[in-house]
Specification:
six-stranded mixed β-sheet; 2 domains; five-stranded parallel β-sheet; globular; Rossmann fold; alpha/beta; 33% helix; 9 helices; 294 residues; ABC transporter substrate-binding protein
Length: 294
């Protein structure tokens, strides 16, 4: 904090963001807004990414009261005029590396920073899950958060999952996003901070074959089924195909019959509370496989 009433914060690009007074009217990318909410801070409004439609994706929203918050659009449909008219004193965005503001067009991001102080936090593959939490916690504290992070809840969740994963015959876990009835995107665990954290706690995550993108391998459902997962972490964001759309595919049905299907949100809030909830969900699945003798 500067002398007087001004506010400053150095973001993950190394940019020093300065506001004339302590920010109270914060607009945030939906994932960031959900994280701030878990810290007890209510955003003025939110915006989404190119993957989102006309309405905010509930899967990304955490516990945000979406009906009570203004959405300024998503991706190319971000309404900058409406955002500026709302007079925010801070915008919180995320990046997946390289300092690029995620979710909106580069020109829009440039125009945004010319008008409003912007903080960008990195949630990409080069950041650990601990690191993501730490940075959002630092920002929340600088914004005078009224809540303490749920550190004890997270410690219990980590200990529980570590114990569950240490049992004999650890289940094989595959993380994926359904592209549609014919194809799936298989996640590369090392490129996702939450999957990497789960792996470090002892969960046996399946690594797809080489080839394809850096974060995903695009496959037909036959290849996914051949991996014979015991647990599937299935992307629940709005841009992923719902399970109902897959039931005409015999290979998906084979996966569904064999494996426990667990909801996975690659853009979950970066808070202790949200991460604890995810780890408990994975531990429930691991314990369930163990109890069934799979």
């Amino acid at each position: 904090m500067n002398p007087g009433n001004s506010w400053e914060f150095t973001d993950d690009r190394g940019h020093l963001t300065v506001a004339r007074s302590h920010p109270t009217r914060v607009v945030a990318y939906i994932q960031a807004g959900a994280t701030l909410w878990d810290h007890g801070l209510r955003p003025l409004g939110i915006f989404g990414s190119h993957h989102d439609g006309d309405t905010p994706d509930p899967a990304k929203a955490g516990e945000l009261p979406l009906a009570e918050l203004r959405s300024f659009g998503a991706g190319s449909a971000l309404d900058l005029d409406a955002l500026f008219a709302a007079e925010p004193d801070l915008v919180v965005a995320v990046s997946y590396g390289g300092g690029q503001v995620y979710g909106i067009d580069p020109e829009a991001a440039k125009h945004l920073e010319e008008q409003v102080p912007v903080v960008v936090l990195d949630v990409g593959k080069d950041r650990s899950l601990d690191g993501i939490r730490d940075r959002f916690t630092a920002l929340a504290r600088s914004l005078r958060t009224p809540l303490r992070p749920a550190e004890a809840d997270l410690e219990r969740a980590e200990a529980r999952l570590r114990a569950s994963a240490a049992r004999p015959r650890a289940p094989r876990v595959l993380a994926l996003s359904a592209a549609g009835p014919e194809t799936a995107y298989l996640a590369r665990p090392l490129t996702w901070p939450d999957l990497r954290a789960v792996s470090e706690l002892g969960v046996a995550l399946i690594e797809p074959e080489e080839g394809g993108g850096a974060n995903w391998r695009t496959v037909e459902w036959a290849e996914a089924a051949a991996l014979e997962p015991d647990i599937v972490l299935a992307d629940v964001r709005a841009n992923a195909a719902p399970r109902e759309a897959l039931r005409g595919n015999a290979h998906w049905l084979a996966i569904e019959e064999r494996a426990r299907i667990v909801p996975w949100n690659p853009e979950a809030p970066g808070s202790h509370r949200a991460h604890a909830r995810f780890l408990h969900t994975v531990a429930d699945a691991v314990d369930g496989v163990d109890a069934a003798g799979a």
